[in-house]
Design a protein that fits this description.
It contains ten helices and nine strands. It is an alpha/beta fold. The strands form two sheets. It has a six-stranded parallel β-sheet with strand order 1-4-3-2-5-6, with helices on both faces. α6 crosses α7 and α9 packs antiparallel against α10. It starts with a strand and ends with a strand.
Length: 277
């Protein structure tokens, strides 16, 4: 496994002719969810590149950029075990030099859901991912479905900009009690860890209601909200959307997906699930 710390060095990597290059972008502090993406790339690609970059452009002024968990040496050991071929570890100063002026904005679907409480977030995500794709030059990129809006935004960016990369969504990896794996789970303290399972419980109950024949989105959302409030979670949003374009729907069908964002103590958690059993 090779560690590459600069953009010119990464661009200069001479991949074998016709090699399939898979890419996994991360912000580090890796967990089983990240490693499942690396595994998917290793299984489907000849070469796997993993980036570790805590992207300042996707954090708001009051968010946790400074305290976001970091452990580069631990990450390297995990990636070595996972058979990654390259780790790209650029600095913020190189990715965003003082005269940096160019940003990527996917309209409409970046301004709903998480885009309401984090208005600059997806602009930062889209920009850094496009830069990373241009630097790494993969044929495939692997991302988890936990941030379903992010996955949809980036797939739309790739489509609209005619990028020669396939962005592949991979299943959410969960703890035994259903909590979606996340680097920010580290922030959960004491009883908050148990309370945080309310997102998964609400999603499972929603899927159960849909399987039993309930089609009214407002009734399913109301039941999910009660589960979250009973667990003292502060709800940001609970929405049922068409998974193809994130448009809200009043009636549940085979394309329906519930997306939840809520605060449990300090951390803001997100989760989602298809309502098709």
């Amino acid at each position: 496994m090779q560690i590459v710390r600069s953009i010119p060095q990464m661009r200069a990597v001479n991949y074998p002719v016709a090699a399939k290059v898979g890419f996994v972008p991360t912000m580090g502090y890796l967990h089983e969810g990240h490693l499942s993406l690396v595994d998917a790339s290793v299984k489907s690609s000849d070469i796997t590149v993993v980036s570790i970059f805590v992207n300042p452009a996707q954090f708001g002024p009051s968010e946790d950029l400074g305290s976001y968990p970091r452990d580069f040496e631990r990450d390297l050991a995990l990636l070595e075990e996972s058979n990654a071929d390259y780790v790209f570890f650029p600095s913020a100063e190189e990715m965003y030099p003082p005269d940096y002026k160019t940003w990527v904005q996917v309209e409409d679907i970046s301004r709903i859901l998480c885009g309401i409480s984090r208005p600059e977030h997806f602009k930062g995500v889209s920009t850094v991912v496009l830069k990373l794709l241009n630097i790494v030059r993969p044929q495939s990129m692997y991302m988890g479905e936990k941030d379903f809006q992010q996955l949809t935004v980036l797939q739309r960016m790739a489509q609209d900009l005619n990028l020669a990369v396939k962005i592949i969504g991979c299943p959410i990896v969960r703890e035994e009690d259903g909590l979606a794996k996340s680097s920010r789970n580290l922030y959960l303290q004491g009883i908050q860890r148990e309370q945080a399972t309310c997102l998964y419980k609400a999603l499972m109950n929603s899927q159960k209601m849909a399987a039993a024949g309930e089609q009214a989105a407002d009734k399913i959302i109301a039941a999910a909200q009660k589960i979250l409030l009973d667990s003292q979670a502060k709800v940001d949003y609970i929405k049922i959307v068409d998974a193809r374009d994130l448009s809200e729907t009043d009636k549940v069908d085979e394309y329906s997906r519930m997306l939840i964002a809520a605060w449990v103590g300090k951390p803001r958690l997100i989760d989602n699930m298809s309502l098709k059993a």
